[in-house]
Structures are given as structure tokens and as C-alpha cells.
């Protein structure tokens, strides 16, 4: 069912080009990643419920949040790839070291939102999501909260997508969010 949904979504975006082994392989990988995201989005002490309803398109909630995260990951990859090509052509400056960041370049509210809600707290989230707990008998148990990371990624994707759709990210001048934050 998920594979059918992935193929349908790809056909809506790319039309009749969705044919052949290459596309089959891409859809297979995307389907696998989506199902993994669904599984990792569930608290490990809760039962896993897979929504196998045929209705509905790509959503940022529930089982299709992984598709939205992957879409925005691909969008970021394209953005950074374009940025790197622009740096090579001399259109954009190199990303400065952390000590040389100029936060006064952040003008948009969305840039501050991304900085304070995602970039700064990211390492703390990773620290909190995987903590080793001492166990009686000398062993250790690791409590990995993958659902927190998935929730973070969906939320980041929503806010980044909103920002991306409002602001011309790369053009003649560099987006301050890319230069300052990333």
C-alpha cells in the first residue's frame, strides 16, 4: 500500500516519467524509508499502529510525516548543492566559522525561529534522545527516544517549508539564514 502511495505521489509530481527500473528502485527506497519513519515515530513502549487507509495524500502528521521530512531533506540537499556551486562561481561567500557568525544578518522572523527552535537545541535533543540507564546486575540499558527525533524533524520540516515558500532563499544575494546559521 505504501509503495502504491509513493508511486502515485511521484506520478502526480513528475507525470509519465515514472517508468523503468530506476524509478522502481527509487520508489522502493522511499517506501522503505517511510515505513521505517512510521515505526521510529512510535514510542517504543507503545504498540505500533500502521494506518493502511488508501485515502488522503501526503501529510505532515501521522504515518506520512516521513514523506514530508524526506521531501524537505531533498529540498535542503538541493539548496546546499546550489549554494556550493554558487560559492565555486563566486556568487556567494563561504560559510564562516562559528566564531565569525554575524547574527545581525538574520532579518526574517522565520530565520530566528529556525535558529532558536531547531539549530541551537539540536545537539541537546540528540543527547536527551539516547541516554544510557544503569541497570541492576552491572549492565546498562539504552533508552533511545526515536519518536522525539521524528517529531522534531516533522516540526522542523513544517517551519522550514513555510520559510522556504515565503522567502527567495538563493538569488543574487545569499539568504542570511544559510550564511549565518548553516
SS element count, helices: 7
Shape: flat
Most strands sheet:
2 strands, antiparallel
Which strand order does the major sheet show? Answer: 1-2
Estimated structural class: mainly alpha
Q: How far is the first residue's CA from the last residue's CA?
A: 37 Å
Q: What is the total tally of β strands?
A: 2
Low-pLDDT segments, ≥5 res: 56-61, 172-182
Radius of gyration: 20 Å
> What is the helical fraction, as a range of percent?
55-70%
Strand content: 5-15%
Could you explain how this protein is built, in words?
The protein has 182 residues and is mainly α. It is built from seven helices and two strands, in the order αααααββαα. The chain has helices at 2-14, 21-40, 65-88, 109-119, 122-129, 146-166, 176-181; strands spanning 130-134, 140-144. It has a two-stranded antiparallel sheet with strand order 1-2.
What keyword list fits this structure?
182 residues, mainly alpha, two-stranded antiparallel ribbon, flat, disordered C terminus
Topology:
Elements: H1 2-14, H2 21-40, H3 65-88, H4 109-119, H5 122-129, E1 130-134, E2 140-144, H6 146-166, H7 176-181
Antiparallel strand pairs: 1-2
Helix pairs in contact: 1-2, 2-3, 3-6, 4-6
Protein name: DALR anticodon-binding domain-containing protein 3
Organism: Ataeniobius toweri
Pfam families: DALR_1 (PF05746)
Amino acid at each position: 500500500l505504501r509503495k502504491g502511495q509513493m508511486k502515485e505521489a511521484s506520478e502526480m509530481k513528475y507525470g509519465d516519467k515514472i517508468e523503468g527500473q530506476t524509478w522502481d528502485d527509487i520508489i522502493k527506497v522511499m517506501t522503505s524509508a517511510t515505513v521505517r519513519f512510521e515505526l521510529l515515530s512510535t514510542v517504543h513502549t507503545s504498540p505500533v499502529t500502521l494506518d493502511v487507509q488508501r485515502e488522503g495524500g501526503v501529510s505532515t502528521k501521522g504515518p506520512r510525516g516521513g514523506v514530508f521530512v524526506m521531501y524537505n531533506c531533498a529540498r535542503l540537499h538541493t539548496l546546499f548543492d546550489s549554494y556550493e556551486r554558487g560559492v565555486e562561481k563566486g556568487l556567494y561567500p563561504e560559510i564562516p566559522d562559528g566564531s565569525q557568525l554575524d547574527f545581525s544578518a538574520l532579518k526574517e522572523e522565520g530565520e530566528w525561529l529556525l535558529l532558536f527552535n531547531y539549530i541551537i537545541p539540536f545537539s541537546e535533543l540528540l543527547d536527551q534522545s539516547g541516554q544510557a540507564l544503569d541497570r541492576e546486575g552491572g549492565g546498562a540499558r539504552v533508552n533511545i527516544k526515536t519518536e522525539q527525533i521524528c517529531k522534531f524533524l516533522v516540526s522542523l520540516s513544517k517551519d522550514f517549508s513555510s520559510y522556504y515558500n515565503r522567502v527567495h532563499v538563493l538569488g543574487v544575494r545569499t539568504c542570511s539564514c544559510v550564511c549565518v546559521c548553516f
